[in-house]
Each structure stands twice: as C-alpha cells, then as structure tokens.
Amino acid sequence: MSAKKAGLGILWAMLMVAFISAPVMAQSSAGSTVGLVRTSTGSFSLYVDGADLRTVLRAIAEFSGRNIVLGTNARGTVRITVKNVAWQDALKAVLRANGLDYVEDGAVIRVDDAAKLNAEKVERETANARTQELVPLETRIVKLNYANAAELTTPLGATLSKRGTIQTEKRTNSLIITDLPSNLDMVSQMAAQLDSQTPQI
C-alpha cells in the first residue's frame, strides 16, 4: 500500500514539474523555431524563409523582453536574413517588408498596418491642435535691463505658438508677450537669457 502511495506521489510530482515547465519551454521555443541566434547583448542573427509573421514577432518579443501587441491586420509571411543586428532594426525590417509599422505606447509596442498607424497619428495631432485652439491665452510683461526690446521681438517671435504675439513698450523697455500658458515660461526664460549686459572691452 505504501509503495502504491509512493508511486502515486512520484507520478504526481512528475506531472507538476511537467505542468510548471511547459510554459517555459513553450516561451523559449519561438526563438529556436525561427532560427533566432543571440550574437551579443541586444543583437541577434535571424535566418527565416516562409515563417509566420506572428511567430517571428513572438521570438523578437521574447528576445527583447518587450510586450508586442499585434493588430488584426498584422499578418504575413517572413523571408529575412539578418546578421548581428539590434532587435529594433530587425523588428522594423520585418514589419516594413509586410507593410506594417509600430508605435511605442508606454511599455507596449503596438504593431498594425502602417497606413492605419499614420492615420491615428494625424488624428492625435489634429485633436491636440484643436485643444490648443481652445486654451485661453495669457499675457506676461517682461522688463528688460540691457537689451533693446524692439531687437528681441524677432528671435522671440520664432518661439511663439501660432496664436502668440509680442509687442514692445518703449517707455519702460518691456516686452508684452501673449501666448499659451505652456509656452510663456519658455519665451520669458529666453528673453531673460538674451537680456544680458554687453561685455566691456
């Protein structure tokens, strides 16, 4: 009876070891499946002829330790030979060969159709521009000690947003700067840096 229990215990232990090690073996197999060979820290060689794109990307994700999320359009077949390249360069080459691209979203690399990702980027930039149009402007007066206020309008004007303006007040040699609050500090700091005493020769 005790021999039977011991045998069951050994069988149970073997099953647990197999169950625990199975995910590890599955995770490490993507790199060997596609022939990925580490050449140095952060670099590898890859020889692939007709492998599924998802398998290749899984191998790159395992190698880099990064999270790669594939969009619904991320499909294709990979034929590539790269020697001793950084994983980022290999990722770009594999994706571009299949009409795909990626964006880094925090700790995640999101892979999808290049046109779709570009359209999303344009939408984000348009939304940001609309938001900037709604932000109320603020005005700040910067009094200059050494520089002529009129001479600083051109260099400072280049740093303003589309809605920003600079006026000069000759009597007090001051700049009247109106712009987005997020931009006012930078323009004011630049004015302070340019307002320096001319060195005596």
Number of domains: 2
Helix-and-strand structural type: alpha+beta
CATH topology tier name of the largest domain: Phage tail protein beta-alpha-beta fold
Strand order within the widest sheet?
A: 1-2-4
Can you summarize the main beta sheet? 3 strands, antiparallel
H/E topology pattern: HEEHEEHEEHEHEEH
Q: Can you identify the CATH class of the largest domain?
A: Alpha Beta
Mean pLDDT: 83
Q: How much of the sequence is in beta strands?
A: 25-35%
Computed Rg: 30 Å
Please give the CATH architecture of the largest domain. 3-Layer(bab) Sandwich
**Count of helical regions:** 6
Oligomeric description of these chains: single chain
> Helix share of residues?
40-55%
Using brief descriptors, characterize the structure shown.
201 residues; Phage tail protein beta-alpha-beta fold; Ribosomal Protein S8, Chain: A, domain 1; three-stranded mixed sheet; 6 helices; 9 strands; elongated
Overview of the structural elements:
This protein has helices at residues 2-33, 53-64, 87-97, 114-134, 149-157, 181-194, and strands spanning 36-40, 43-52, 67-70, 77-86, 100-105, 108-113, 138-143, 165-169, 174-179. It is elongated. A 3-stranded antiparallel β-sheet has the order 1-2-4. The protein has a 3-stranded mixed β-sheet with strand order 3-6-5. It folds into 2 domains: 28-122, Phage tail protein beta-alpha-beta fold, CATH 3.55.50; 133-194, 2-Layer Sandwich (Ribosomal Protein S8, Chain: A, domain 1), CATH 3.30.1370. By secondary structure, it is α+β, with helices and mostly antiparallel strands. The protein starts with a helix and ends in a 7-residue tail after the last helix.
